[in-house]
TrEMBL record:
Record HAMAP family: DXP_synth (MF_00315)
Catalytic activity: D-glyceraldehyde 3-phosphate + pyruvate + H(+) = 1-deoxy-D-xylulose 5-phosphate + CO2
Family: Belongs to the transketolase family. DXPS subfamily.
Function recorded in the entry: Catalyzes the acyloin condensation reaction between C atoms 2 and 3 of pyruvate and glyceraldehyde 3-phosphate to yield 1-deoxy-D-xylulose-5-phosphate (DXP).
Gene: dxs
Protein name, entry field: 1-deoxy-D-xylulose-5-phosphate synthase
Protein residues bound to thiamine diphosphate: H78, G119, H120, S121, G152, A153, N181, Y293, E378
Keyword Metal-binding: yes
InterPro entries registered for this protein in UniProt: Dxylulose-5-P_synthase (IPR005477), THDP-binding (IPR029061), Transketo_C/PFOR_II (IPR009014), Transketolase-like_Pyr-bd (IPR005475), Transketolase_BS (IPR020826), Transketolase_C (IPR033248), Transketolase_CS (IPR049557)
């Protein structure tokens, strides 16, 4: 579909085109850009509200700063659609997040305007500081380094670490822009949020700040000593006027704002002034997530990434499916934890900033004093869980597989070394889909499997997820010394009728799903359903295939593996995770350790970055969709292909 562009946007391919415009034309550019984002996302999908909220900021930044020489770093990057459109990617923006198309996040190899690759949050301050220090080293005193970070991203320890360091490098030419919209994906949480509201709403502070700002603007023209004097007065007054002393100033970051992040005239003026103020500084901008699209301003969580929608009615498109609908794994988690918690008073739930993504919001609503959103703070979430576990709580700590990478030391040091039975539910394990390599849950089988005192499980379907969650909170696990990881993917399972009574699974026991004679497929997790499909076609070809669902990557079901290796000399392992160190590696280790030999083919993610696309496209690319499994089985058994894919 051809998306119309406004007349000004039509003439902009790069920021240099934008910079040719008069300041009074920027309003119009911003409106056209906003409209273009609405049009594009409504028909092609992607993140939405965050980009709408920074339209004015995006235009002003590229207008005032000399990008790409000046380094502009977007934190997370889900809000950078306007930036992408203004920096050479307008004409192929239709391919955003689509297989083979441009990435939904800034990416260094995609554009020189993408100063830093992102996807995970809270990296911008450290990266910008690193660049600023690099520029100091290279004797480039005029280069600017701008980190745009949201109030949600600012809750992470990494952001605090960056600010702590930045405040001590007084010559670092770094501007932190705090894009404060009081939202993460869900409403932002924590004491910092309260603090930002305090600064934002103090009327006396705001009046004096505006006066100081004007004075500062005038004095800055008279050189450094005049600026220093104004700066000192300003700091003293800010400190006196705020109910608490200014947090940022206390870290030696000069604090400016708060200002209206949608007032493009003021924004442009302020950014110009800040260009002349050396050293580390922070500009606090107030914005509205979803700005300019009514429904997105009202329900900001729903419109964070709404999927396709009718831009006129605001109706979000539902998936058309003629089959009965299977639930998302995340919803099975959300309902099951409540069901279990109703019976077991020790159960609590933790999420670092993903209440709706993990569906822990179901428990947060039903049992607000037993389910907690701790902000974007994966490390804290894990150690908090560990602390709770020492007091006898059965903690379900739900973290996306990719974000758990942040908390690896905490898993080892604070949980496993301390022999605490924390339950980790790793959502989005396996290919995440359109978010791409920053978000694929590729590594968790490998990184969890190698830690002592860790059980690693994955359900083939919804019923199994429930049973694994049931097992994890049982006395058998909770009085033991081992943590319990359950990994499951993004999206739906296969069982519309999923709410079955709990039944007991034994730790380290797999299950034989089907007998066979010619070869065996050992699968781990829901990707096993692709094997089930492939096996049907293999049977048609006369290839009798056994299917074993491993259930546990650790401990392995050794009895089952002995049975497999005694009976079969052709074996395929299948996992939705990296091949290096995954379940295939575990089976190989078992084979070698026990002196078996077999022709063993491992299917899973290869040792390279796999880009974005629909999950089924990525499985196919890596040869582990049903067709790929079929072909591998065929080539192992060396029979001719007759079923065509
Ligand atoms: C380490 C990490 N944890 C969680 C996420 C998921 N996530 C993406 S955006 C987001 C909210 C960010 O809030 P904020 O920085 O305020 O940006 P806004 O969407 O409000 O513009 C979260 C939690 C992530 N990308 N990275
Ligand atoms: C930018 C980011 O990290 C999140 O918005 C992420 O895209 C959410 O992914 P899900 O849609 O799988 O919850
Ligand atoms: Mg925010």
């Amino acid at each position: 579909m051809l998306i119309k562009q406004g007349p000004l946007l039509n003439n902009i391919q790069y920021p240099e085109d934008l910079r040719k415009l008069k300041p009074e034309q920027l309003h119009e550019v911003a409106e056209e850009l906003r409209q273009y984002i609405i049009d594009m996302v409504s028909v092609h999908g992607g993140h939405f509200g965050a980009s709408l909220g920074v339209v004015e900021l995006t235009v002003a930044l590229h207008y005032v700063f000399n990008t790409p020489d000046d380094q502009l770093i977007w934190d997370v990057g889900h809000q950078a659609y306007g930036h992408k459109i203004l920096t050479g990617r307008k004409d192929n923006f239709y391919s955003n997040r689509i297989y083979g198309g441009i990435s939904g996040f800034p990416k260094r190899k995609e554009s020189e305007y993408d100063a830093f690759g992102v996807g995970h949050s809270s990296t911008s301050i450290s990266a910008a500081l690193g660049m600023a220090m690099g520029s100091m080293h290279n004797n480039e005193p005029n280069r600017q380094h701008i980190a745009v970070i949201g109030d949600g991203a600012l809750t992470a320890g990494l952001a605090f670490e960056g600010m702590n360091h930045a405040g001590s490098i007084k010559d670092a030419n770094i501007l932190i822009i705090l894009n404060d919209n009081c939202m993460a994906i869900d409403p932002n949480v924590g004491a910092l949020k309260e603090y930002l509201t305090d600064i934002t709403t103090s009327p006396t502070y705001n009046k004096v700040k505006d006066d100081i700002w004007n004075l500062l603007g005038k004095m800055s023209r008279f050189g450094k000593s005049a600026r220093d004097i104004v700066g000192k007065v300003e700091n003293a007054m800010k400190g006196a006027l705020l109910s608490q002393s200014n947090f940022f100033e206390a870290l030696n970051l000069r604090y400016f704002g708060p200002i209206d992040g949608h007032d493009i005239d003021h924004l442009t003026e302020v950014l110009k002034d800040l260009k002349d103020i050396p050293g580390p500084k922070i500009l606090h901008c107030l914005t509205v997530k979803g700005k300019g699209y009514g429904p997105a301003e009202v329900d900001q969580t729903k419109w964070h990434a709404p999927g396709l929608f009718d831009k006129v009615t605001g109706e979000i498109q539902k998936k058309v499916n003629d089959k009965p609908v299977a639930p998302k794994f995340q919803d099975v988690f959300g309902h099951t934890i409540v069901e279990l918690a109703e019976k077991n008073k020790n159960i609590v739930g933790i999420t670092p900033a993903m209440p709706s993504g993990s569906s822990l919001n179901i428990m947060m609503k039903a049992m607000p004093d037993r389910a907690f959103d701790v902000g974007i703070a994966e490390q804290h979430a894990v150690t908090l869980s560990a602390g709770m576990a020492t007091r006898g709580l059965a903690v379900y700590c739900n973290i996306y597989s990719t974000f758990m990478q942040r908390a690896y030391d905490q898993v080892i040091h604070d949980v496993c070394l301390q022999e605490l039975p924390v339950i980790f539910c790793l959502d989005r394990a396996g290919f995440a889909g359109a978010d791409g390599p920053t978000h694929h849950g590729a590594y968790d089988i490998a990184y969890m499997r190698c830690i002592p005192n860790m059980i690693v499980a994955s359900p083939i379907n919804e019923e199994e997820l429930r049973n694994m969650m049931f097992l994890a909170q049982s006395d058998e696990v909770q009085t033991g010394k081992q943590a319990f990881t359950i990994r499951y993917p993004r999206g739906e399972g296969v069982m519309p009728d999923w709410r079955k009574p709990f039944s007991k699974i034994t730790i380290g026991k797999g299950q034989k799903l089907k007998d066979g004679e010619d070869l065996a497929i050992l699968s781990f997790g829901p990707i096993g359903n692709q094997a089930t499909l492939a096996i049907k076609d293999l049977e048609k070809e006369g290839i009798s295939t056994a299917h074993y669902d491993m259930r546990f990557a650790k401990p392995l079901d050794e009895q089952m593996l002995h049975e497999v290796f005694r009976k079969f000399d052709k074996i395929i392992t299948l996992e939705d995770g990296c091949l290096q160190g995954g379940i295939g590696s575990a089976v190989l280790e078992f084979m070698v350790d026990h002196g078996y030999t077999a022709q063993l083919k491992r299917l899973g993610m290869p040792d390279r970055l796999v880009e974005h696309g629909e999950q089924y496209q990525l499985y196919a690319e890596c040869g582990y969709d049903a067709a790929g499994i079929f072909k591998t089985a065929k080539s192992l058994t060396k029979k001719e292909l007759t079923v065509k894919y």
